[in-house]
Amino acid sequence: MSTGTRVEVATLLGLGLAEPLARLWMAMTAMPGAGATDLAEQLGIEETEVRRYLDVLADRALVRVSQQTPGLLVPITAEAALAQLLRQQEQELAEQQRRFQEKRDQITRTVTADLDAGGGVGDPAQRVEHVIGADAIHSRFEQLAYSTTQSIDSLLPVTGLSEQSLADAWPLDTELLRRGVKVRTMYLEAVRNDLPLLTYVRNLQAAGAQIRTSPTLPQRLCISDRRIAVVPLKPGIRGYGVAVISAPGVIASLLELFEAVWHHAAPLDVGNPVDTATGLSDTERSLLTLLAGGTTDETAAKKLGVSLRTVRRIMADLMQRLEASSRFEAGIKAAKKGWL
Prior knowledge:
By secondary structure, the protein is α+β, with helices and mostly antiparallel strands. The protein is built from 13 helices and ten strands. An eight-stranded mixed β-sheet has the order 3-9-8-7-4-5-6-10, sandwiched between helices. A two-stranded antiparallel ribbon has the order 1-2. It starts with 8 loop residues before the first helix and ends with a helix. Pfam families: GerE. Residues 79-106 form a coiled coil. Residues 273-338 form the HTH luxR-type domain.
């Protein structure tokens, strides 16, 4: 390529481009002026497939019509392609976050309405049980764990758990795994900075649980056998109480929320992945997005599960990399670089 920027198929895949599209785009850059017939021969696929993939690349603005040869599609430059893919990925993430928030608001409204209406009376399938107090909540989780037969799916945006809390949780978790229950759990990326919790999570993974991490998580959630869920009545406020829900409509929404977050989370052993196009880790990108949206340092620290000092250290490092003398200037430069 004339730009001098080297792009690998793995980079395009990492930015969300499907493999057939990535390989076609790479072939087009390696064979300037090639038509659909030549590209099909080079890739070993049907010409009709090439034309279909070209339509998709055009929809994603990764190819354009040649100004020199009418009707010929040519790839945009490597720099433009990376920036375009990154923007599209950020837009998808923003849309995903918007849907997460909508679902959380919908679930909160449903739970509140059921409680206000005296949930628990009438059809058991629609019951919402309100559990208050640490001992009562732990007992309810015990009952749930020993009655689960197929799966437990959990979002746990927590760090700094006490040794006693971890010791109380271990028998429940291992009992589930011993009985062959499929356990999928997501933690914050910040779990890697919490040695006791990280040790617990690694032991849990070694025992057979599937573990993933994300810079942020929408709320605490536990779903048993895809039919009973436990959610906080006031997300972000510990000790307020939990709701145990069995209403099918709410469960369906919570499962959709879990699967969406799980799909975008990273396996525990991957670490805090770094975007090859920008050099940003997931945590750094999430922090930039939070602060650009007006979130305070203190709130950002809570959402990321890290200390206020860590937030300020990460931000100072980003300002240095951006050669910015203020956060305002850093925001402008980050936006120009396509980091936001």
